[in-house]
């Protein structure tokens, strides 16, 4: 029994870690495409952008791309933002916090930095077609990563935990809460100088069916076996 438990936990941990690594890699590709990223990343990039202004001692500038020459790494800023959200999660419903929450918190932003730097160095002047291809691939692998991460069931991200907790405690529709949160994040990110794009719209409203495809054909068979 314990051996079975250990094997299952190892499988779930591997799915969680793989999901976070692949998700971070895909966000770096979203950055590289310059065609928008998911709403929470738009918000986090807005804070990151304004920190560049503050740390360089200049007046606020909007819609400026700092991804190639940052004063402070995005991974650090992403981690701090999630630490703040983690405090809210703890008081809302600490049961939503799991090992996956901390893997996401400490790892994802740094993988994003590495991914963006890798592609920028490999393809310094991408054409529009290349950017579109990167956007499409980023969407597909983000859905794959999400399926692994959610199916492992070892906790959720600090951002997801807020909507889930409010939905359970207040009886509000999770989808409405999530859409409202995405709109708020996108609006705040835009106000702080980050342009949303087609990638933002797709990740906010149209990723569900592809995530479910990977759930059925990859994530659930990985966790439960092919017959489940």
Features:
77% helix, 9 helices, single chain, globular, 0% strand, 228 residues, mainly alpha
Short description:
The chain has helices at residues 2-33, 39-56, 74-93, 99-122, 128-152, 158-170, 174-191, 198-205, 208-224. The protein has 228 residues and is mainly α.
Molecular structure report:
This protein is an all-alpha fold. It has one domain (2-221). It contains 9 helices and no strands. α1 (2-33) packs parallel to α4 (99-122) and α3 (74-93) packs antiparallel against α4. The relative contact order is 0.20.
- What structural class should be given to the helix and strand makeup? mainly alpha
List unreliable stretches of 5+ residues.
none
Write down the Rg.
18 Å
How many β-strand runs? 0
